[in-house]
Amino acid sequence: MISFNLLIFVSLAYVAFLFLVAFAAERRSAQGKTGWLRSSTIYTLSLSIYCTAWTFYGAVGYAARSGLEYLTIYLGPTLVMIGWWWLVRKLVRIGRTQRLTSIADLISSRYGKSTVLGVLVTVLAIVGTTPYIALQLQSVTQSIGVFAASSGETWLPRDLNSAAMWVAVGLAVFTVVFGTRNLDAHERHHGIVLAIAVEAVVKLFALMAVGIFVVWGIAGGVGPTLDLIDASAQSQWNPVSGRWIGLIFVSAGAFLCLPRMFQVLVVENSDERVLGTASWAFPAYLLLMSLFVMPIAVVGLDLMPEGSNPDLFVVTLPLSEGRQGLAILSFLGGFSSATSMVIVATLALATMVSNHIIVPSWLNARTPGAVVSGDVRRVVVISRRISIGVILAFGYIYFRLSGGGTALAVIGLVSFMGVVQVLPAMIGGVFWRGANRWGAGAGLIVGFTVWAWTNFLPSFGIDGAISQAVFEHGPFGIGWLRPQALFGITGMDPFVHALFWSMFLNTTAFMVVSILTFPNPLERLQGAQFVNVFDYSSGARTWSQSAAQAEDLLVMAQRILGGSVAQATFRAEAKSQGKAGFLPDVTPDFIGRLERELSGSVGAATAHAMIGQLTEGTMVSVEDLIAVADETAQIMEYSNELEAKSAEQERTARALLEANEKLTALSIQKDAFLSQISHELRTPMTSIRSFSDILRDSEVEDEARKRFAGIIHEESNRLTRLLDDLLDLGVLESGQVQLNMGQGSLADVLDRAVIASGADTGKLSILRKPGAEAILVQTDLDRLAQVFINLISNAAKYCASETPQLRITVREIDGETVVDFCDNGAGIPKESQSMIFEKFSRLEDEGKAGGAGLGLAICRQIMGALGGDVIYLPGQGGAAFRVTLPKTQALAAQ
Amino acid sequence: MGQRVLLIEDEPNIIEAISYILSKDGWTVHTHSDGETAMEKVMQGVPDLIILDVMLPGRSGYDILRDLKAQDATADVPVMMLTARGQAKDREMAIGLGATQFMTKPFSNADVLESVRALATP
Predict the structure, then answer these.
(1) Which of A254, A269, A561, A733 makes an SS bond possible with A566, Cβ 3.0 to 4.6 Å?
(2) Does the beta carbon of B46 lie under 8 angstroms from any beta carbon of chain A?
(3) Record's superkingdom (chain A) (predicted)?
(4) What does the alpha-carbon distance between residue A555 and residue A573 come to, in Å, rounded to a whole number?
(5) Sheet holding A775-779: strands in order across?
(6) Do A844 and B58 touch (CB under 8 A)?
(7) Closest Cα in chain A, distance from residue B93 (Å)
(8) Domain with B65 in it: what CATH number?
(9) Could you give the CA distance from residue A54 to residue A139 in angstroms, rounded to a whole number?
(10) CA A301 – CA A306 distance, rounded (Å)
């Protein structure tokens, strides 16, 4: 007989091989070579974790006990993949755009990031999956037991239990190593996926090998096998239609709702195009898996001694025929089925537990706003590792408590019906915008309660969890609450009864409560994005590069802030990170700044809702944000439509808009002016303050002391002049200037100006023609002199010639007196000529001359008040200004 | 000490004041008063600290700051921005662009000294 040690050796070698496969895949993906890891073949094979040990061992047992009914378990997923592939595609698209990490995340996210719903679904999933994990441990242990018995070694139940425990520990290690190795924001695990793909091949190969051996090696070919089947009771076509429909429905629903299926179907999917292949390839896989179930069952019943467990025919048949190699292969197939299911289910559940229970509690326990991303990562990883251990421990404990006696298929069906309670909230969530969290919560609680009462608790048998009295008379004697005859309706198959009432009440509660209550705004937005996911996202895109994230943040910011502002913001951020271009790293700091920027445009609440998704413990989903931005735009469009209904409103709106624009323009001007004044006042104050600090705080040599005091004096004068100018300009601009009209000679005014400007003692030589200046003017002579002083001082300050000259020419043109001031400097560049009369328009390179840039503005105001003008004369060689006096004020001197 | 400070500022009196107090404190002060050529000046010898005025002739201090932060050689040099437009948004702008310190004119000499010591001493 086969050596038991050989079996253990082969198993360990197989496990080591799986470790190698997973490790190699992780390495390839770390190097960015994910091409074939994301292929449709790998994806299809990974879906085969639907076929667990239940399918591998249990289907034969099911067929042996209940005939063709086992086919329903394959028909459900087949119908989903072939007929409902569009639903799967929608789920995959939503999963990617929303960065969903689990089925609990889907429900929570769809219903406005509801924490309560996330916890609820997580708990349901754990309750539903724990028996299932126990089932896998049980099947592995039973098959080991078969080999132990056949090798004649003495095995105590204790040894079987410890075998189960070691299997559980091994699986925990594998899942921790490859499931929490690196925290990928997408929750994709190439190592695990490739390992389960390999296991999918092994289990299919093993089952088919056993099948081929049974058909051709034992029964003697296809013909005799078919005869055998025809003669057996199992092949009788007597479907109980209610049961068949119910079973197909449950397996189809479970295919979508099982946490492990959601993990491989949606979360691990990185390219929705592979769905096309999977939609026919996976049903083909199921077909091959189911092909030999009936022959094995019938031949097994025929050959094996009375009372042998049909769940184990796949192993015991080859063993009884002395085919030890085939038996070991078959064992490895079953082992693969069990381990792949446990690994993915544990991983999916651990993700749910950490994301929906542990991390939110941890975040709540901390002071708000103090979230450090590094901390979160550590908490997530640790909580996930602990969760994996705890979930497997649950499975092991359930296995010990249940005693491993129940038929595999029964445990499987109970589990299926439990997780299918999520289906109404899921389907409603992706197709019905009116669905809301209250409805989803009500449906889940009602459905789960009814399932527990009518299916889960009764599965422990009469007097197991529910006493016989309650079965017969209902709790507290309330007859219509009997677990297998709710509302007094008797005579239904218990499975159909439980399924009908749980789904009916679940769906009813979900819809009625959804209709009666109102969703919150975030829920509304999420609802729109789930239901209309194909409008919000286009094409197949991957989010693996951080550059792509920054780019899409930029796209979103441009929609809200406008192109130039958004680009400037991103560019500044990129530069501050030391990167060229427009795409900075997406750091928490940057996200925070971006939120503030956005809140200026869309309001703090919306911006927070958009950015606030960050705090959910996963990375920000950029497409979320874009979708919210689109939604905002739609809401604005909608309000525009309403506005258009009333012409009056529209007119008012336009008037308001114009007024607002004017105010904004004025306020911008005012801001610029104040900022400029601030600068002009603070500059001399800086020197004064600094030098007075020096004089006060330290010993300074006499010479320096004098110099510093001189600077303080000079800067104080500058300040005073500036204030005078400002006040002057203020008065002039307000139009309330008092003119002191008088009569005088233009020559006298010019004389005064030359002296007052100090130009007569400086380097600048002034050329005048006294004859032409003998003109009598009627005006405010002081103000006119002020204009002249300004122009002469400017020439003195800015004329950059070696031998600076200023030519003052007085002329009469068309009866107007004009006074031209032309120097021999570089002149004023053409592009600046139009600006020099504006306030603070000091030319850049003239800064050292110390003016505040108010002089020419004052001149223009004064000449305006006097009824004349001052302009810049281009093309005169140097800088040239022309002052024009109005006719009435110029009188020829006698 | 003896570390090098580059002061980029266009007001002669302010240049004199800052140079005086820093030199007295043991720093080697280089000055430059034009925005346009400021980057060339920095590249001639990367200083241990840059004091940078915002409103410079030729080129704004913010533009110079962006250039400083974008180049490997100067990205790590602490920059103390000086501005006479003491509005909050100027401070945000400066810090957002990567300035290490931001000072509004007029400043107290003690503050300048304290900041310079804090920024440039290892």
Answers:
(1) A561
(2) no
(3) Bacteria
(4) 15
(5) A742-745, A775-779, A890-892
(6) yes
(7) 9
(8) 3.40.50.2300
(9) 8
(10) 8
- Domain span at residue B63 reads 4-120
- Taking an 8 Å cut-off on Cβ atoms, the answer to whether A691 and B14 are in contact is no
Convert the pLDDT of each residue in A466-495 to its tens digit.
Answer: 667 666 666 666 666 776 666 766 666 778
Domains of chain A by residue range: 4-209+235-287+303-405, 545-645, 668-734, 742-892
CB neighbours of residue A776 within 10 Å: 16
CA–CA dist A51, A48 (Å, integer): 5
ipTM metric: 0.92
B91 touches chain A (CB under 8 A): no
Tens-place pLDDT, residues A61-97: 888 777 777 888 888 888 888 888 788 888 888 887 7
Q: Answer yes or no: do A845 and B57 touch at CB < 8 A.
A: yes
Number of domains forming the structure of chain B: 1
Q: Which of B23, B62, B104, B105 to mutate to test the interface with A (most CBs of A within 10 A)?
A: B105
- Chain A interface, mutation test: which of B22, B109, B111, B113, most A Cβ atoms within 10 Å? B109
pLDDT tens per residue, range A341-350: 888 888 888 8
Per DSSP, chain B holds a count of helices (H) and strands (E) of 6, 5
What SS3 class is residue A492?
Answer: coil
Q: How many CB pairs under 8 A join A and B?
A: 91
Strand, coil or helix: A517: coil
A130 contacts: CB under 8 Å, gap ≥ 6? A391, A394, A395, A398
Pick the CATH number of A4-209+235-287+303-405 from 1.10.1060, 1.10.10, 3.40.30, 1.20.1740: 1.20.1740
Instruction: Say what the pLDDT of residue A605 is.
Output: 41
B26 and chain A in contact, CB less than 8 A: no
A742-892 CATH fold: Heat Shock Protein 90 (3.30.565)
Residues of A in Cβ contact (< 8 Å) with B17: 686-687, 690-691, 694
Say if residues A846 and A793 touch (Cβ distance below 8 Å): no
